[in-house]
Each structure stands twice: as structure tokens, then as C-alpha cells.
Amino acid sequence: MSIEYDRQEGERNKRQQHCTFCKNHGKNLRKSNHKCQHEECECLLCQLTRVSRLVMRHQQRLWRHLKDASSREDTEDAAAHGPAAASSKQQKCDMCRNHGVMKEKRAHKNACPYQDCLCALCGLTKKRRDVMRHQQRVRRSCGEPVPCRRSPPCPWWRLTWGSPLLWTPGSITTPPSPV
To answer: Which pTM was predicted?
Structure first.
């Protein structure tokens, strides 16, 4: 899902979401009241989009569960510290959030204490990152919109350095990256 900011007079920036399936095929259509013609497409980018959404949906469900559990425990702590500061709009580190720690992502990449964690939540985070990395590689290697699988077979299954993308619905693996 791509996001664009529209600025109108007298209003703050509003986020406009765009359909990722259409973006995979070179179209930039807003999601509101949109019936996507590519939602059943079986090309590689659309398959990766589905996997990424599935993993993210599962991850968000787990984060909500953790948030609810920790909010019940922290209710009395929040009352003791007075009103909390407004929450930051900065992105949070997903790996830290998996473990109940809210660290800002900025300047945190090599300092994350959970970057080598092997727990199930961090495994989901790594899988989602791999899927998104594959998606970017395929998009960049194409250079042009990917035809829908309903048309002739999609030739975009090879990455820029020529090795096939090793992807099955159950697992995602990457070939060694070029140096």
C-alpha cells in the first residue's frame, strides 16, 4: 500500500492510500471506493503483496494482544507518572516492539538488541522484510509495469543478476546478493 500526502488550503496533510496491486501493474489508483481489477492476479509481485499482507496482519494481531496485556499492567504506572507526553509520530523498531520495548527506529539499525533474535515474532518480522525486499528487487529489475498474469505469462520472475527468485507459499529464501 503506497501513501501520498495531499495538501489543501487551510488543512493539514492528509494521507491518501493507493492500491498496491494496481501499483504492481503501473497504475496509481487511490484505495477509497476502489474495486481492484488485479486482486486475483497471480504474477510474482501480486503474490508477494499477498504474503506481505498476510504476515503483517498476523503480526499486528500479536502486537495488539501484547499491547492490551501490557496496558493492563501499566495502568497504575501511568497514573503515578501523571499525564503521558503525546506519542511520537516516529516509526518504532518492529523487533523491539515484538518484545514490548518501544524504541524509535531512527539511528537504531545496528544498535537493536533483538536484531539476531530467533523468536516467532521476530521470525515474522524478518519474513515480512524479506518479502518486501524481494518485491523491491523485482520492481527495480522490471523497469516497466508488470503485465497481469491473465495476459501472456509474466517473464519477471528473474532478479537483476539473473538468478531465480526462490519463493514458495510456505517459505521465502533469497539467493546470495551480488557484491
So the answer is: 0.50
